[in-house]
Each structure stands twice: as C-alpha cells, then as structure tokens.
Write a structure and sequence with these properties.
Strand 3 and strand 4 form a beta hairpin. The strands form 2 sheets. This protein has a 5-stranded mixed sheet with strand order 1-6-9-8-7, with helices on one face. Strands 2-5-4-3 form a 4-stranded mixed sheet, with helices on one face. The protein is α+β, with helices and mostly antiparallel strands. The protein starts with a strand and ends with a helix. It is 17% helix and 36% strand. It has a single domain, classed as Roll (2,3-Dihydroxybiphenyl 1,2-Dioxygenase, domain 1). The protein contains 3 helices and 9 strands; from the N terminus they run E-E-H-E-E-E-E-H-E-E-E-H.
C-alpha cells in the first residue's frame, strides 16, 4: 500500500465495530490501537519514514461521507482488486492513454457509513510512449 488520500486522517463513525471490521478485515490495514472509543490503523510510511495513520473515533454523529483514494503499486493491484471484488467492489480500467503515466486502473468500493474508496494504480504497460524512440521498447 502506498498512500491514502484523505484531507483529515480522522473519521467520526457511529458504528465503530463495523468500520473497524471493514478497515482490518476487508482492507487489511494493520490495526495499531483499538479502544472502546476509537481505532488507529497504519496506512504506510512516507518518504521520511513517518507512519501515516487513519483514526476512527466513535461518535453520535458521523463525518460527512468522503471519497478516499488508496494508491497501490501496479504489482499489488491484481490481488487487492480480487480481494475487494469478493466484497462488492467494481473495477474500471481506462481505455489506454495518450500521455505517459496515466493509464489508470481504478477500483470503486463502498465503505460503511456512506464513504467511498477508490483504489488506484498506474498500469505502465498501457501508457503511451513519450516519444517515437521509446515506441519500439514498449512491451
């Protein structure tokens, strides 16, 4: 897992148990801390080695539904995709690319409490070459 895009890495949730189950058992995020009032999951580390986390806080009012984007390496995408599709996610793949680096594969997944998750990866084998000299080396 590379990175989760979330403007604030804290979600207030009405049903902490359901969201913990989703993050731990469906997304396979490492659980760092679990209490009666919250949970903290590890998302990965940044380039400086700092741990990035997602915090869930039990609340009578939940956060407004958000769209979160989880970027994974191209090599991780097939297994992540297969796992999440077994839990109802749907796959979208772009139809090729006219620019290098933008042949995205996107998996859409509904999360509890109305949140949406996009799992994205770049498929370099479907990216356009940057110049004619690279066209001959493209797989």
């Amino acid at each position: 897992m590379q990175r989760l895009s979330l403007d604030r890495a804290v979600l207030q949730v009405r049903d902490l148990g359901t969201m913990v189950h989703f993050c731990r058992d469906i997304l396979a995020l490492p659980l760092l801390l679990l209490t009666d009032t919250g949970a903290t999951f590890e998302l990965g580390t940044d380039e400086r080695g700092h741990t990035q986390v997602l915090m869930l806080l039990a609340s009578e009012t939940s956060s407004e539904p958000r769209r979160m984007t989880l970027e994974v390496a191209d090599s991780e995408f097939p297994s992540t995709c297969a796992h999440l599709r077994r839990h109802g996610a749907s796959l979208f793949e772009s139809e090729g690319s006219s620019a290098p680096g933008c042949a995205w594969r996107v998996l859409h997944c509904n999360m509890p409490e109305g949140h949406q998750l996009q799992v994205v990866a770049i498929d370099p084998s479907r990216c356009a070459p940057t110049s004619p000299q690279y066209a001959s080396v493209r797989p």
